[in-house]
């Protein structure tokens, strides 16, 4: 999973069907919670920390959503940072809600929970810095309208905006509101997490959870562009794209074009 740095300048599926798929993914990936995860998280954290300290803009390409842990640990060493979590799912499975969100075991389904300090300490409390990101400093954008994590996140003060609300308000307006929060003191900046499954499978089928009801390419571009243009944006990671599900290469071309449009300097 490379870390590239450049200098600065509702769904038709039922909730039960989606949960079954997420649980299957979890069972298939339980081995991900092993010492290698911790070692990799520390290694990536060191690289992100160094690049951000040097004024670079890291672009981290993965892999599943667990790569976010290394990025936010690196930022936590530098100060207090927020996260714009652009993802088709709430990824808030943790020990306190397994009855609602399903069994633990796959970091890919626990992203928001883990970066906010929920879950096994050998991933969520490295360097004694739990939480890497505070609940109030996370903005979840683009989850499906029926995502089961919304009620709990709302009660905890984790901001979240599902696809339907983005369409009603407009992606530009949602991005501006997000920036008002993530650019405000005492935050030192923010990181963008981009999961390819935030896109609708009609335009991006090359993901492991291609649930309908996602954003279209133009909507995602309009949402990301203001965030990426902010001088307080420290970097971005891109996850979940699966080349095995993209024999034509169309998905790769779409993502590459999107990243170029949004993040490349003129």
Largest sheet: 7 strands, mixed
Instruction: Give me the Rg, rounded.
Output: 17 Å
Proportion in helices: 40-55%
- Percent strand equals 5-15%
Distance between the termini: 26 Å
Strand order of the largest sheet: 1-2-7-6-3-4-5
Helix/strand-derived category reads alpha/beta
The counted number of beta strands is 7
Mean pLDDT: 88
Unreliable residue stretches: 9-32
Number of helices: 11
Pattern of helices and strands:
EHHEHEHHHEHEHHEHEH
Shape label: globular
Give an overview of the whole structure:
This protein is of the alpha/beta class. It is built from eleven helices and seven strands. The protein has helices at 15-28, 35-53, 67-78, 98-101, 111-115, 121-124, 150-156, 163-169, 171-182, 217-229, 250-263; strands at 3-7, 56-61, 81-86, 138-141, 159-161, 189-195, 233-239. The two termini are 26 Å apart.
Summarize the structure in short.
With 266 residues, the protein is of the alpha/beta class. It has helices at 15-28, 35-53, 67-78, 98-101, 111-115, 121-124, 150-156, 163-169, 171-182, 217-229, 250-263, and strands at residues 3-7, 56-61, 81-86, 138-141, 159-161, 189-195, 233-239.
